[in-house]
Structure formats: structure tokens, C-alpha cells
């Protein structure tokens, strides 16, 4: 049972039938067809040799099949992670150098270790701090940066930079040397991909890129376009990567830790939300902590096989799901597919124009830009919009890392600020009932001697002092008060700080000549408070309900205007 | 009105009467008598020349009188802040050097600027993140370190170090050269202070230290003990400090920022809790953000007058309060008192034995050690105890800074972890009523087709994904479910992330063939949700109450065993 939890394969393998295998195989073929151009393109985007993308699409898939809890998720290289990989590595290593390639491997290993550790420590909740508006803003902004980074391949000119500004500025001086062949290829493929739905009504949209790849490879080879100046992927080593673990070197690993953490968290959030969406359609459940372990294993696999950081990809996973993949075995079959491609297709890939891959990337990430989300968030919540905007602006004009860190920092800050000021309301009795309501919103009976304060949140150190303030403000503003009842129906928890604040409130109230009572205290909270100085020294009583307190304190009700 | 808020002096000065002045004067005399030995001792503790303590007890008091909202708080040097000052400065500057003294001034200025800024930005809530167990553990551990740091003066041997271990180890080799005179003086004063309550029954305990100071100064001068090897404070400059602002130098200021922040926050937390405790006894109220500004002004004042960081002191404030000080004018009078002392007493202070001050410090801080708090917190809450213990251990064996940072980090981490898993319960109808209760705790009616899930916390990004998990787990485990009602009486807030999670839940439930309903949605939350895709696309309905939903969904109740 326990082992099955860590190795879900034990759960599904014994019941695996021929029918499952058939569906999984069909799905795997489609995924393989999608994964070949994607893995090459995202390696290119990360500034890595194209074969690295293929390497990252073999062992990671096998390991995810063993450890993963989703039958539909297709792991592998992914656009946003590729951009983040480039963003982390470019300032540290010479692009294209062996050190840069090793950096990507270390990133994958570090990211794998972090994810596995988070999984075993059940720290999946940490990913929660990447709020929806921040991740949505981050993905939109990153996609724009990715598109800007691919323009150079469409135009056949050099360019470099970590953000929109740098990329544009670095292209300006080179606009004179645009390559017509690259432009024709790039924009041709772009138009083909955009029009594919009409041109090829029978072919599923998601596998059209492979058609574009095949066509441009054939054209390039046939017309010798590569010799006429069209930038192509070029010769890549055939065969499979040797398995090896990168040498440990503090000086090399340490600067990559922060980047690996961001890549891990972003990858995990994306992956788990795809897995959950798809699992729900079959009323299945995803265990986020198990997904951490599986994704971690996949990244470790990418690391030991000369790959790059991987995560679940949305479009591939949807195709996989729609084709009927029902077990992680489909990932295994796709790994076999990519292995075959790596062994046999490398001579052809040499003729693949970079402009083709750039066009495929642009079409893929353009679909990730979600401008309406900006408007939606603005309408719904200004603070959330603030965090989103900060993420977008910093990602566009500075770097992906600063964008995501600013977003997380702002949303955690706003969260801490909000929880430090819990909602509370002075309440009064609704005449003729036993119910109490906010005196500012309803016509209720109140008694000037007895104040009822309802607290609408758990009490912990973040808001304990706020409660002290609120109570002392009430006591100071109502000189005739003799009794205060704290009504606690929504208080699920009282930590040590809040308990001491309540004690302090009790003592200050004694000094001020006001008795403190509690009512509607939940069972578990009451258990915890039992025997504390708060209860033993409480100047008033603990009532079961506010109405009990009302009756018992013999309030002479006065109707409020 | 607005100006009065920032300058509370405008509020109380016009109504200031002869009677107020009389009480304030008496209180000020007592505070001055306490403040003279304390300010000298805490300057010594901070590794600063003794006059720095006096300087920090003049202008800060005047500024607090203008800006402060508490009529009882007595600001000035304070033991824990002095220890923190030494801890920040010692690794950076040669103790006793001019750079070290300038460092203390910069700390005061930085701390003042931070506090004023926090006050204007209304960031007082940040201090909440110093939870009670952490601050209590920190004060107990710091007090132990302070006592250990004073033993050298009692024994008349050199010692240095930032923590208990270092201090003890540095004293070991010098135990052979203990000064008998220092020991006699130190332990004599110690015994005198401890026995004072019995020896001098008429004298208030808090002003006994000045008697010890006067006696030992007289003895030292009369017997010429300083010439026989008793370590004394020695010649200090007479007269008042010149006002000056420390030159700005990034290299000098920047390493002090973190230390200044910790000093600010610890000083503020101590000060505001003293002020609130005393204000409550007169049913008055303290404005924490105004206190930030006042404490900031006091520290800026300390900075421009060659002082050291200051905050409110507990023992002095209590004496001030008990003596009847009713307005901040008593601080003004105490400032006059310290000014007179600085102008006239410096020749006498030269004969003051360091052992006397050390004994006074030890007696003062021994009262701050709260061992029962450890037991209390252990009993009350294990996570809180963990944060407390980490603070204590790191403060004792490493440094005050690491202690407090670990404590804050752990308690914020635990807080984030707890809020990421909000309480929720599947509920059922209590037969014969309209009330719903947790199915695991009560005998209630349930219907297998319709599940009621009550959510007991506001929904925000920290727990949004947890809710997704919880719901999908329920749906996966109950294949017969056709309707899910989210009962939200305790949901005070739904941020953009949580709203999108609810949307995702709604869409996944549609995929799974389950209708999603809401009930007991609070007014403000409903207003916010109006017009969102969640409500427009909701597969079910929004019910006023869970009972309405129960009736309307025509649940055929089945009694649970």
C-alpha cells in the first residue's frame, strides 16, 4: 500500500490489458510526433544544442511512467522552462559553450533533487505561494519574451538579451542584414501553421508542426537551401547520450540554486494543474506530493542523460488524454518513439531550418498569452492585479527571475497584510430571534453595558495584536461598558501568541473594570484553551452561545435607531 | 484633527493644568534617578562610552514627548537593544574605536528612519510577525547572554564574544587573574540590590540602584579604590553633545541595514506592548502607527545627538505610570533631569565602578528571564514551542540576530503551512433541525448523491489549491455523487486565485458530471463574485442556506450509522 503510493506503477501494471495497451500506443505515437519538433525547438530556445531536447524526452518519460500518478501527463521540455533555463544560464556561462550545456544538466539535477525533497517532506503547499494572477501574468509575459527571442531566427539575424527591451535593441543594428531565405521559410511556416486548420481539415491541429518540419527539411535538402545561407540546425551527434552524473562543484552549483528553485516551482505548478484538470474528467485524483516526486525523478533522469529541465506540457498532455491514454505506459511508449527518432532521424534533422522551429515556437506560445486575464483580474481585485502587473512588467523589462520573485513577494506581502487585519464586527440581537448581526448593517437590539464582538477569523500571531487594538479601542470609546463578549464561531485556531494576547486583553480589561466573556468557542479550540491562564483567570464566563450570554448578563436591551 | 494625530502634543497641551504638572514632575524625578545608572550601564553593555547612554536619554525623550501617544512610556537605552547593538557592531568595527561609536549613531539613525517610514506607510502590522513565543524566547535567551557578558566586570577579567559559548570560553584562560576588589564590589552590590527590599523597606525597589551607585562612588573616591585596581568608568567628557548628522557612506551604512531593522522591530514590539498595557489601565488607547513615528523620531534624535538606539523601558515606564505621570510632559522633565545630571555629575561618574553597573544590569535582566513560558508554550502548542526553542538555542549558541531571524522564519513558515490547509468538513443535517454538523463528529442525515462541504476559512491563493484537492478527492471517492454544495459561512474573502480555483473546480465537476452549488455566501463575497465566470458558468445554484439546498435538491435522506 505504502510502496504503491510511491511507485504507482505497482498499482496499475497488474491490471494492464491489451485494450489499454492499444489506446496507450496510439496516444504515444501522436505524442512522439508532437514531441520531436517541440523538444528540438525548446532546446534551441534554451540556447542548447537541439539533441539535448531529444535526450530530455527519453529517460524523464520512463521515470515519470514509474512514479507519476497521472495517466495523461506528457513530460518533456517546455517553452517557459526553456526560457527560464536560458535566463539562469546566460549571465553565468558563455552561450554555446560546454560549460553552458553542463549548466543545464546541473539545473535539471538540482531541480530534480529539490522536487523529490519537497515531495518527501510534503512541501507541495509551497507552490501555493505562486498565486494564479502571478503565474498567469508570468506566462503571458514570458511568452512575449519568447516570441521576441525567436524573431531573430525568422529574420536570420543575430540577437541576444534577457528581456523585451534588450532583444529589440540588439536586433536594431542588424536589420540591414536580414536573410530573405530565412524570412520566406519562417513566415511561410508561420502562415502554414496558422492556416493549417483550413488547409488540412482532416489532420489534428497539434501534429501539424511535424508536417511543416518534414516539408521544410525536404525542401532544404532538395534545393540545397542550407548552402544558400538558410540557417539550419546542422549536424547533431547520432546515438543515445551516455548516462553520467555532473561532477559536484560548489562554485558551479551554488549560483544555480535559486534558478533551479524557480524552475522547480513553476514546472510543478504547471504540471500539477494540467494533471488535475485532466484527471478530473475521469473522476480520478492526483496526489500533488507524489507528483513532486515523479517530476523530481523525471528531472534527475534528464540530468543524468545530458538533458535539460522538464515538466508536463499542456498541448501534448491534452492530445495524450484525447487519444485515450489511460496509464503512464503511454509515456513509456513515447520514450521508445523518441529513442527511435534519435537513432534514425538525426541525418534529416541536420537539414531542419531554424526558422521552422522558431515559427513553431511562436505559434505554440502565442496561445499562452492571456490578455483578458489582465482585465478580469483588474475588475475582480486591485491588489491581485497589482501583483500581476508587477510580474508582467518586470518579466518584460528586466528578467523572468525578477518578475516571478516580485510577484511572489508582493502576493505573500499582501496576504500577510490582509490576514493581519481579520474581519470583526460589533453585533446585536435581531429582535424576536436568537440571532445576532452586525450593528452597522442591520436593525438590532444592543445594550450599552454589554458589547458583543464577533471575530471572523482564526487568531494567530499575525492578527493577535490587531485584536488587542480593536478591543482596547472599543473599551476606550465606550466608557459605560461593563462586559465584553468575544463571539468566536469562526475561530478555528488560537495559537500561543493569540492566547497570550487574549490573556493580555483579559488582564487589561480587569484593570479597566470590564469583564471579558467568550461565547461560541468551537470544541477543538476549547480543548486547547482548557487549563490555560486565560480560562483560569478569565474575569467573565464562557457561554455556549451569544444568546446565552445575552440572557445571562441580563442585558436591558435598547433599540438602536 | 489630522495634525493632532501626528503631533499628539497639540491635543493634550492646551488642557495641561498645574495638577498634571505636579504629578508629571514627581514621576520625572523618579525616572531620572532610574535612568542615570541604566543609561550608563546599557551604554557599557553596548560596548560604548558611558556618556553615550546619557546622550541617548535627552533628545529622544523630548521628541517622544512631542510625537508619542502614550503618557506613561519612558524611552531611552534598554538592555536587549544594547546587546543587539553590540552584536551588530562588534563583527564590523574595532570595539572602543571611533568607528564603533559612529556605527551606533548610524544604527540609531537608520532605525529611526525605518520606524518613521513604517509609521507613515502604516506598516506596524509587520511587527506582528514577531510572535509571542519568539519574542519571549528571544528576551530570555538574550538576558542570559547579557548576564554572561557582565560576569567579566564582576570578576575584573577580560572577556569577549557574541554568545554564551564564546563568552565562557574567553573567560576560562583568565580565571587566574580575578580581581578581588572587583568581586567584592560586584557581588556586594548584587547582594545589596537583591536584599534591598528587606534592607530599605521604605525605598521603592526600582530606585535602589542609584543608592548602590552613590555608595560605591563614595567608597571608591574615599578609599581611592580606583588606584588600587578597581575598574571604574573613568573620565568622561562633561557638557552636552553637539548635534550632528552622521556622514552618509554606502559602505558604512549598508552592512548595518539588517541589524537596524531587527533593532527597530524588537524595540517597537517591546515599546508598544508596554504602552498598551499601561494605557489599558486608564482605558486609553495607543495608536501603533503613531508609536512607530514617535519611536522613530526618538531614534533619529538619539542619532543626531551622538546616542545609541532607544526604545521604551518596562521598569521605568511602570514607575512613571505608578507615580502618576499622565502626559508625555513627564518625559520632557526627565530629559531636563538627565541634562542636569550630564552637566554636573560627570566628575562623580568617573569614580563609578564598572562592577556596580554590571551588578545592576544582572539584577535588571534576570527579571526578564521567563522559564515558565517554555513549559507553558510546550503544553499549549508544539509548533509554537519549536519556533521558541529555535530562537533560544540560536541566540545562546550563535548570535542574537540568527536567533530572532530563525524564530521569525519558522513562525511565518508554520503560519503559511497552517493557512494552506484550511479546515473543511463534510456536513449532514441534524435530524429534526435546520442545522448541519460534521458527519465525523455527529449523528446526522446524509444523502449519497448530494455532498455538503463546509469551508471554515477565507479562500486565497495559499489554500486555493488545497480546496481543489479536497473537492476532487471527494468526487473521486464518491462515484454516486451528482451534486456538491460548498457551504461558505466562514468565507470572508475570495481572492483572484481562489476564484479561479473555484472556476476550475466548477469546470472539472462539469467534466465529472457533478453539479456545483454554493450556499451561505456572505454579502460582501457575493458582491465580489457577481458577474464573474464562476457565477455565470456555475453548473448549480447559489442557495441562501445549506438547508435551502437540502430541500431544493430533494435529497432523500439516509440515516448514517
Automatic annotation (TrEMBL), chains A, B:
One of its GO terms (biological process) is transmembrane transport. Gene3D superfamilies: STAS domain. The chain crosses the membrane at residues 25-46, 99-121, 133-155, 175-195, 207-224, 256-280, 292-311, 331-350, 357-374, 386-417. GO terms for cellular component: membrane. It is a multi-pass membrane protein. Keywords: Membrane, Transmembrane, Transmembrane helix. InterPro entries: SLC26A/SulP_dom, SLC26A/SulP_fam, STAS_dom, STAS_dom_sf. Its main location: membrane. It is found in: Membrane. PROSITE patterns: STAS. CDD domains: STAS_SulP_like_sulfate_transporter. Residues 440-560 form the STAS domain. This is Sulfate permease. The lineage of its organism: Bacteria, Pseudomonadati, Pseudomonadota, Gammaproteobacteria, Pseudomonadales.
Amino acid at each position: 500500500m505504502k510502496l504503491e503510493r510511491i511507485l504507482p506503477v505497482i498499482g496499475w501494471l497488474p491490471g494492464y490489458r491489451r485494450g489499454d495497451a492499444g489506446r496507450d500506443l496510439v496516444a504515444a505515437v501522436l505524442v512522439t510526433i508532437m514531441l520531436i519538433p517541440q523538444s528540438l525547438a525548446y532546446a534551441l530556445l534554451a540556447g542548447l544544442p537541439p539533441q539535448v531536447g531529444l535526450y530530455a524526452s527519453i529517460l524523464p518519460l520512463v521515470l515519470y511512467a514509474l512514479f507519476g500518478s497521472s495517466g495523461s501527463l506528457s513530460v518533456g521540455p517546455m517553452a517557459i522552462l526553456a526560457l527560464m533555463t536560458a535566463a539562469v544560464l546566460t549571465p553565468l556561462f558563455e552561450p554555446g559553450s560546454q560549460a553552458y550545456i553542463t549548466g543545464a544538466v546541473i539545473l535539471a539535477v538540482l531541480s530534480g533533487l529539490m522536487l523529490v525533497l519537497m515531495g518527501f517532506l510534503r512541501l507541495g503547499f509551497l507552490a501555493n505561494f505562486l498565486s494564479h494572477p502571478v503565474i498567469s501574468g508570468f506566462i503571458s509575459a514570458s511568452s512575449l519574451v519568447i516570441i521576441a527571442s525567436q524573431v531573430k531566427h525568422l529574420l536570420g539575424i543575430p540577437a541576444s538579451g534577457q528581456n523585451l527591451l534588450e532583444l529589440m535593441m540588439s536586433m536594431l543594428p542588424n536589420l540591414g542584414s536580414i536573410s530573405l531565405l530565412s524570412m520566406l521559410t519562417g513566415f511561410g511556416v508561420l502562415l502554414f501553421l496558422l492556416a493549417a486548420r483550413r488547409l488540412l481539415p482532416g489532420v489534428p491541429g497539434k501534429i501539424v508542426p511535424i508536417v511543416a518540419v518534414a516539408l521544410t527539411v525536404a525542401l532544404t535538402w532538395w534545393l540545397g537551401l542550407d548552402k544558400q545561407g538558410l540557417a539550419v540546425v546542422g549536424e547533431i551527434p547520432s546515438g543515445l547520450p551516455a548516462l553520467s552524473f555532473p561532477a559536484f562543484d560548489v562554485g558551479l552549483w551554488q549560483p544555480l540554486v535559486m534558478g533551479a528553485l524557480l524552475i522547480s516551482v513553476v514546472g510543478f505548478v504547471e504540471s500539477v494543474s494540467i494533471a488535475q484538470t485532466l484527471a478530473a474528467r475521469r473522476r480520478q485524483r492526483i496526489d500533488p506530493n507524489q507528483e513532486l516526486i515523479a517530476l523530481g525523478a523525471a528531472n534527475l533522469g534528464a540530468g543524468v542523460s545530458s538533458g535539460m529541465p522538464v515538466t508536463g506540457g499542456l498541448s501534448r498532455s491534452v492530445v495524450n488524454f484525447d487519444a485515450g491514454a489511460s496509464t503512464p505506459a503511454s509515456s513509456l511508449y513515447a520514450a521508445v518513439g523518441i529513442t527511435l527518432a534519435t537513432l534514425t532521424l538525426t541525418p534529416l534533422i541536420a537539414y531542419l531550418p531554424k526558422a521552422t522551429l522558431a515559427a513553431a515556437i511562436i505559434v505554440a506560445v502565442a496561445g499562452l498569452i492571456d490578455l483578458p486575464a489582465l482585465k478580469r483580474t483588474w475588475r475582480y481585485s486591485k491588489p491581485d492585479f497589482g501583483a500581476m502587473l508587477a510580474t508582467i512588467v518586470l518579466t518584460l523589462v528586466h528578467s523572468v527571475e525578477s518578475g516571478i520573485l516580485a510577484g511572489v513577494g508582493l502576493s505573500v506581502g499582501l496576504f500577510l497584510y490582509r490576514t493581519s487585519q481579520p474581519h470583526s464586527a460589533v453585533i446585536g440581537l435581531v429582535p424576536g430571534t436568537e440571532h445576532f448581526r452586525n450593528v452597522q448593517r442591520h436593525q438590532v437590539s444592543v445594550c450599552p453595558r454589554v458589547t458583543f464582538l464577533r471575530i471572523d477569523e482564526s487568531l494567530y500571531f499575525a492578527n493577535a495584536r490587531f485584536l488587542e487594538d480593536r478591543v482596547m479601542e472599543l473599551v476606550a470609546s465606550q466608557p459605560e461598558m461593563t462586559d465584553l463578549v468575544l463571539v468566536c464561531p469562526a475561530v478555528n485556531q488560537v495559537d500561543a501568541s493569540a492566547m497570550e494576547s487574549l490573556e493580555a486583553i483579559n488582564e487589561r480589561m480587569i484593570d479597566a473594570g470590564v469583564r471579558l466573556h467568550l461565547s461560541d468557542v468551537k470544541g477543538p479550540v476549547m480543548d486547547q484553551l482548557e487549563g490555560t491562564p486565560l480560562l483560569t483567570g478569565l474575569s467573565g464566563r464562557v457561554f455556549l452561545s451569544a444568546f446565552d450570554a445575552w440572557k445571562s448578563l441580563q442585558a436591558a436591551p435598547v433599540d438602536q435607531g
